[in-house]
Amino acid sequence: MNDFNYLKESDVYLDSACQSLRPEPVIEALNAYYREFNSCGERVKYPWGETTDRKVNATRDKVLKYLGLKKKDYFVSFTLNTTYGLNLLLSQFDAQKAGVKKIITSDIEHNSPFLSTIAFSRRTALPREVIERNDDGSLPLDADFSRALVVVNAASNIDGRRLENIKDLEKTVHQNGGFLIIDAAQAMAHSKDILEKVPADAICFSAHKMYAPSLGGMVVRRDLLGYLDTSFVGGGMVSDVDRDTYDLLSVEPEHAYTKFESGLQAWGEIVALGAAIDWLEGLKKSDHKNLEDNYTELYNFLKTREKVHVINQAPNPTISIYVDKAETGFDSHFLGSALADQGIMTRTGYFCVHYYLDHVKHYPPLLRFSLGYHNRPSDIERVKSALANL
Questions:
Q1: pTM > 0.85: yes or no
Q2: What are phi and psi of 76, to 5 degrees?
Q3: Other CB atoms closer than 10 Å to residue 189's CB: what's the count?
Q4: Using an 8 Å Cβ cutoff, are 314 and 321 in contact?
Q5: What percent of the chain has pLDDT over 90?
Q6: 290 vs 389: which has the higher pLDDT
Q7: Is 229 helix (H, G, I), strand (E, B) or coil?
Q8: Under 8 Å between Cβ of 59 and 277
Q9: Which CATH topology does 37-281 take?
Q10: Which of 222, 180, 182, 179 is nearest to 205 (CA)?
């Protein structure tokens, strides 16, 4: 793909689940902010600032359109990353006012929802349940979701398995008087279809996993604000401040996002996220097919390796494996270093999913290949050549 022409032929980047590479239009959009209208948003009246405001507001609208959600029901706030957004929501959620009796998450969660739900349970003294996900990524719906706050991912960062019954889960949770918060970090780029038009109470995501700069986003249902006790405050959120008091901006539609945006925001990164969404929406069928062909070819090859244990049940842009030291004489960390010596960049370890991978499955450290739209068929051939003897 021409938008990644800066990649050397010798560089094989397979760590998109951590952060994706940025296509040229996104890099250009970020550079344009710094070169052409570098300014504070929402605070100035000169033309540069007006340009920043216009482009930032356009990005908010693009996020909602990307997910098929309506502006009258949702607003978009920007943060540091998914972890920050989840913690910001859960730390300010008034469980008593909402009538919540427990919090539920699942076993395959990244530490973002896993740790933040532990902290929520400790803060509120409410019970916390960890439900075992099915092999296809769906969540069993026979659990008791009555008055539950449910926080789960839409796609796993281990093997990409998706929350296939997300729409049924949403209906079940809401019919039982509960709330649903989705970790969409791994879904926004390659599994957007599973998120479209799902009326969750909040969706948190990381722009840097969807071909945009380092940034976090929160898509929040407007009526959720009634159950939040705003305690993380700062400039940009207030209409007036006295010696010992302050008045928050109105929760009218035009100001709702300020509830989570204290201080100056990453204006350039927000503008560039808008460019990334435009880029994703403009991808051709051939681009999607190239990605699918690449990860399918890699998955099928790995399944043929006698000493490679593949975690995935099916092909996916995110594929995790491990090698048994007793069988090979080395572990996944060593393998990752050996691949790095050949210009092949992967991730090793537990990928911030310690509970499931280490304490439930008792896997040794894993090695993860996570592909993106930048990958070339030659990248897969390089991996196959490097692992041919396993």
A1: yes
A2: -120, 125
A3: 24
A4: no
A5: 91
A6: 290
A7: coil
A8: yes
A9: Aspartate Aminotransferase; domain 2 (3.40.640)
A10: 182
